[in-house]
Amino acid sequence: MSSLKLSRRSLFKLAGAASLAACSSRPARAILPYAKQPPELVPGIASYYATALVEDGLATGVIVEAHEGRPTKIEGNPDHPSSGGATRAIEQAAVLGLYDPDRLQEITERSEPAPWQAIERALAVARRGRTHVLLEPTSSPLVIELIARLRNAGMTVSFWSPFEKRESLAGNAIVLGRPLQTRVDLTNADVIVSLDGDLASDLPRARQLSDRRQVIDGTSQIARLYQIETCYSTTGIIADHRRAVQPSELARTASALLAGGGDDPWLAAVARDLKRAGTRGVVIAGERASAEVHALAAQLSAGSQCVAYCEPVVFEAGTPSHELPDLEGVDTLLVLGGNPAYTSPAFAAKLAAAQTSMYLGLYANETAQMCRFVVPAQHDLERWDVARGDDGTLTPIQPLIEPLFGGHSVAEMLHALLGDRPIDARDELAAAWPKFAPAMRFEAALAHGAVPKTAAPAIADAKPSRVPINAPAPVAIELALRPHPFLHDGRYSNNPWLQELPETVTKLVWDQAAQLSPATALAHGIATGDVVELSSFDRAIAVPAIIVPGHAEGAITVPAGYGRKGAERVAREPVGANAFELAGAREVRLTRTDRHIELAVEMESPLEHHRPVALGGTLVELRDGKLALGKYRDAVPTLLTEMPRSGPQWAMQIDQTTCTGCAACVMACAAENNSPVVGKEQVIRGRDMHWLRIDRYIDDGGATVIQPMTCQHCEKAPCEYVCPVEATTHSPEGLNEMTYNRCVGTRFCSNNCPYKVRRFNWFDFKSHDPLRQLGANPNVTVRDRGVMEKCTYCVQRLRRAEIDAAVEHRAITVPKTACAQACPTNAIVFGRLDVEIAEVRRRPHSYAELHEQGTRPRTQYLARIRNTNPEIVG
Amino acid sequence: MSVASAASVAAEDAAEEAEDPIIIGNPTDEQLSDQLLSHTWRPITRGWKLAFLITGLGTLMLLALITLTVMRGIGMWGNNIPAAWGFGIINFVWWIGIGHAGTFISAILLVLEQQRVRTSINRFTEGMTLFAVVQAGMFPLLHLGRPWFAYWLFPYPAEMDTWPQVRSALPWDAAAVTTYLSVSIMFWYLGLVPDLAGVRDRAPTLWRRRIYGIFALGWSGSVQQWRHYKIAYLTLAGLATPLVISVHSIVSLDFAEAGLPGWHSTIFPPFFVAGAIFSGFAMVVTLIIPARRVFKLHNVITARHLDMIAKMLLVTSSIVTYSYVCEMFLAWWSGDRYELFEQLRERPFGFYAVVFWVLISCNCIITQALWSRRVRRNVVALFIIAALVNVGMWLERFEIIVVSLTRDFLPSSWHQYMPTWVDIGILTGTFCFFGLLFLAFLKWIPFVPVSELKELKHEELGK
Amino acid sequence: MQSFARVSALFPPWSNTATYVALIAAVVLGAGALVAPIVYARSPYARGQDDPLLQPIAFDHRHHVRDDGIACLYCHDGADRSAYAGIPPTERCMGCHAQVWNDSAAIAPLLESWKTGTPIRWQRVHSLPDFVYFDHSVHIARHLDCSTCHGRVDEMAAVYQVAPLSMEWCVDCHRRLAPTRTTCSTCHR
Question: What are phi and psi of A74, to 5 degrees?
């Protein structure tokens, strides 16, 4: 273009004229390069940092993906023993918690904005008076040092978290003489009896268990798992034998086991199995089981090679300092983290009476609302700290991003309380590091995310004594107050991802529901959705009920985390009540009220309707060839043309035997693929947007099977040929692709999908909050309304791996899909059909879902194999 | 009823009908013209005004709800996963089915037999077809997630280098419906030309004559024009004939192409065509009985006309009933567990069982009354039966679409479908819009083909 | 005949011609309405080709590339390893301009950015929709020259878009050079 060969002066003229006439069809879009680009950052290339997320003082090591300084995705840190590369749903959702618009954004005094100096002044006063500091349980050596200094200065310190390790330590104190921490290792376990154990949320144990339960064929020697529990848990789902009992019945059951099973044939068979396993048998108890159960479990496991004891990792755990304080004579109360006003209604009254109170936390929750001074805390992804993993492994914590709202850390507050000069958090940690971990340099530890060989040593002489344990008597209706699997004690209640994550057994989202068995419900005339009143003496709460087949008779399970009254908008949305109102109550009165609530249950039918859907059988059947799954595998004739193949042939295998249904994959998928949250109304309408769902079926006997269901990437995909605009097509690598920007939204593809795994944007579901948008994965299109979407096998990861291989002129490194990467039990395996997947697909219990439809899915399943005890019938 | 007795009744009927006139009396050409054209220039009465007002308001509501749907998203409707199609597609299939009778009567009867019975009612039914297709045509567009990209369903040289997928029934559907609409318009308009000229020549005011004159395209009634007209009309009829069959066959492929239990069936094309003609004839009866009364057309739309339509209803009802039985039998014969569950368990006894039993009553059982000549000749009875068939055929589409979708392979994905107020409002709105168009047609357009009627009269009386 | 007389009374003689003209116009306009957007979408105007934008600094590639011999990758250093070629940070400009031309009025915004740490707001010349995932690095790794898509930037006073950047244009090249990479998820995910 000749007119463009101009001098600079005339260019200015031309450009000026151009801007006046605005003669371009394009909207003006600016590019803002860095003024000073950080040396480690190249725009467009994600960076990964090791850090940790802390819950009740215990760290889970994670690797955080960041794009141009924005953390967008959390993965487990394979080098951290508490993670082993896996995560729970809670860790996966932490990114959304970081970008939460409801987080505290400024320091306030009596709800009025205040400067940091006001806090310093208040702390200076507190330093001289009678001051109590209430912390969350901690394992940070940095904070422990400061606590010692506080106590020296005459201040009192205690710790509180409603669901921290308490019963296990108390139980061990009974039989071991002091509150030691139980350390379970299932690597060599043959028979596991779990008394209300929650293996699914214990990532290392879940991995060990799944390694011990790999079915290669019928001759595989796999561990046998018994689960005795009140409420159907994910451990109950994977158990070979399960029994539902009242919470107090657990202790009686354990006593009976100790006595060889007594006259209960089921228990006698379990006891014999345990005895046969010798040192490879183990009895474990869940944290919600009572101290007596833990004591009995320790006695039952005496001599087992799977159990050892160590000093508690959490500072002063199991001691009286972990009870809520009596605030008598205290002038100033500092609540640094947690939400005691919610988790202990009794404490709330005392808190309100405190002369001066100060709160450090992420939200304007119930406790913050009662305190005079409120200081925004730093999110785990914003701070420098150090903590220990569940086994004691020292874990450095580094920030991914500057505090979004200028938050403060616990250490910073304690320093201010002690009158120390402000110190840079990183410098402080780096300076103290050689003390904590002399064997590993600070920078190396940061890069690694954990310091090896710092686990708490086993105490060799800890042998449980056989002191007699008294079991409590049964009651009519016993209350089981449980942490919610995703919302925990309510601390994650403001996370919409977790609110909309279906609970595995009930499939319930957004609302609280008290679980009870069909027979108990029938006896009280209760139907699902009826609001029931639970009362114990003068305390009562009203919650909707949900009937769960397989729940214990004469018991009612109420999850915590609801009935939130803080300023957090999402947490206030669900229907429910504060279960902590009934904390400590064992027997409750159950009465039906006239109110009824429509619960958002994501699966309408719990039955398989005698269809070959989630297949399974016993190990013996597999060995004897009675589990003829061949007919669910072989190719079916098809009229559809063969697709051209080239490149790696991607495939997935999902093992129903090891899958616990913990839903970490569902959350990981949503986080990786920018899935929107739609809200309760839309879920009730049948418009949830999860690409991956955990199907659960309950058979006539109340046994539950689960099956993670997502796009099967059919080789003969029914969705592809019905799309009028070819928005869904087949790639040469065997992916069933979905091109959002080509989709016009006829939804014919979904109608013709036999698995119904496609999701449609009925409205503009995407977030318009600029803060929330920071957490989006820039490598995945944020879908607009009116387009179909579905699992892509994380095609953005595949393309990234391909491009990296091409740029570096090497063979491709097989990436993991988000679900496979998060899976605590390696139940999801992703890879190439002829390499990574070849062996699992040859196993005798591999099958294709809806095989007879001729779809030839690339995702296939390993049937659920139960290692049943031949002595137990049914 | 035994076959023999049925045959004897039919023979009896035929004998009586032979005597039944198609035109009552012997009106002159002038009289016919005045009777059938004068309503176009007579002043609008209060009743008409009220009717226009109601249908007009309903149409405005339809526009408002369409705007709401396009602005907020298709989620305003009750659709979900698994029932990704709902009221939108049900209404589409129902309206397009109704749009079949017109062309069937006009074109097929013209081409096949030169049926004289069609003469008085063909324009009327063509109008009905056209307006029904207008209603139907809205839905494929509206039900899209992104209706502004609907043109991607048509083959055009896109700068994305992309084309529609010919394996999918939907681009064919888009083509079939637009073709059908354009041929229907041409066929209807061509037939109108001589009568528009008639109004032009008789209307009392100049501006009326001018307006009708423009649309009459200079029709003079010369022999040459009549010759060309006849050739063109027959050609268009010939073109329209296969369309009657093809449109609903293609519509049926929107379902039959899928592997869904309840959809995956080879009998769908003839089944759908029969159902379409069935519902179309039912709608003709529903509309023509009041129109005949209002315009006092008993001499040109006679009991014999109604009787013939009623027999057609009986025939198509039988085909539809046969198809239902076939579907169930094939489900049983196939042994496919999903098909069996859908056809023999969920449809008759499931969550939406009431839909099944109402539609069977309306489409298969009540129509049996039409064996009786007395019922066929009873205007009120005929009207009620036809109205019920309309309901039944709508429910049949509900059954096919919703019940199949909500109960497919994996029980985990089952989810109930419930329409929203927007769904119901849009369906009601289409009734009003249809009514508005139809009223305007009745009021200002000669809806009985006068010229053909005169021709027929001369033929009949000339015998 | 009677009707003939009526017609002639209703309409003047020229109405026949008017009818033909109206019919032809309807056909032409109808066809035009179909063809015009198809043609428009392919026009350089619609695609923003050949249209130099007003930049905050009149940066002249001719001078930097031809006269000074600076390679593309010196400034756009993400091109061979990242999806984005990258616009150089102020710091990199200052690597030279701290010494040379540091008193020129033309680079005043640059010095301002360096002083205040605020980025320079360049106007985007090559813009792809958000649903297109283009990756520079793999194209460089496949030995495509920058000028294949960006034209002779070394001859441009102000950079303008040379290629149409339409899907047709992308796909055409992919079909010829990388036939296995024409599947949709290559660019859309």
Answer: -115, 130
C152-189 pLDDT, tens digit per residue, is: 999 998 999 999 999 999 999 999 887 778 899 999 98
Residue A456 in tokens: 């708490």
Is the previous residue joined to B82 through a cis bond, with omega within 30 degrees of 0?
A: yes
Pairing verdict, β A828-832 and A650-655: antiparallel
Q: Which residues from chain A sit within 8 angstroms of residue B259, using beta carbons?
A: 718, 752, 754, 853
Distance, in Å, from the CA atom of A345 to the CA atom of A341, rounded to the nearest integer, reads: 6
Strands A58-67 and A385-389: parallel
Mean pLDDT computed over A620-630? 87
**What is the predicted ipTM?**
0.90
| Structure tokens that stand for A858 in this block | 């690339």
Question: Looking at residue A874, what is its pLDDT?
Answer: 59
**Residues paired with A859 in a beta bridge:** A652
Cβ-Cβ contacts under 8 Å, C173 against chain B: none
Q: Do C51 and A37 touch (CB under 8 A)?
A: no
Q: Which two tokens stand for residue A463?
A: 């042998």
What number of residues does chain C have?
Answer: 189
C-alpha distance from residue A156 to each of A325, A420, B25 (Å): 9, 18, 113
Residue C144 has which token pair? 């495509």
Distances (CA, A) of B173 to A380, B154, B156, B166, B180: 56, 10, 16, 11, 10
Q: What are phi and psi of B252, to 5 degrees?
A: -65, -30
Sorting pLDDT into bands at 50, 70 and 90, what band is B463? very low
C97 phi/psi in degrees, rounded to 5: -75, -5
Structure tokens at B236: 């268009």
- C-alpha–C-alpha distance, residues A577 and A495, integer Å: 18
Rounded Cα gap, residues B82 and C16, in angstroms: 58
Asked if A421 is an interface residue toward chain B (Cβ–Cβ < 8 A), one would say no
DSSP conformational letter for B5: H
Q: Residue A857 gets which letter from DSSP?
A: B
Which residue of A25, A733, A777 to mutate against C (max C Cβ within 10 Å)? A25
Chain C partners within 8 Å of B204 (Cβ)? none
Chains A, B: CB pairs < 8 Å = 166
Closest Cα in chain B, distance from residue A783 (Å)? 12
Q: Is A505 helix (H, G, I), strand (E, B) or coil?
A: coil
Rg of the Cα trace of chain B?
23
Distances (CA, A) of A139 to A85, A436, B162, B245, C70: 22, 12, 60, 78, 55
Q: How far apart are CA A249 and CA B43, in angstroms?
A: 89
Query: CA B297, CA A862: separation in Å to the nearest integer?
Result: 73
pLDDT tens digit sequence for B132-188: 999 999 999 999 999 999 999 999 998 888 899 999 999 999 999 999 888 888 888
Q: pLDDT tens digit string along C7-29?
A: 457 788 888 888 899 999 999 99
Torsion of CA B362, B368, B370, B372, to 10 degrees: -150
Residue with tokens 């320079």: C120
Of A709, A723, A787, the CB nearest to B168: A723
Q: Extract the tokens encoding A781.
A: 């299109």
Q: Which residues pair with A47 in a beta bridge?
A: A66
Give the pLDDT band of residue C48 (cuts 50, 70, 90).
Answer: confident
Taking an 8 Å cut-off on Cβ atoms, the answer to whether C90 and A35 are in contact is: yes
Collapsing DSSP to helix, strand or coil, A506 comes out as coil
Are the C-beta atoms of B116 and B149 separated by less than 8 Å? no
Q: Distances in Å between the alpha carbon of B242 and those of A292, B108, B179, B316?
A: 83, 9, 12, 18
Residue pLDDT, tens place only, A281-294: 999 999 999 999 99
Bridge-partner residues for A544, per DSSP? A531
Q: How far is CA B301 from CA B15, B22, B24, B440, B446, in A?
A: 20, 7, 9, 20, 14
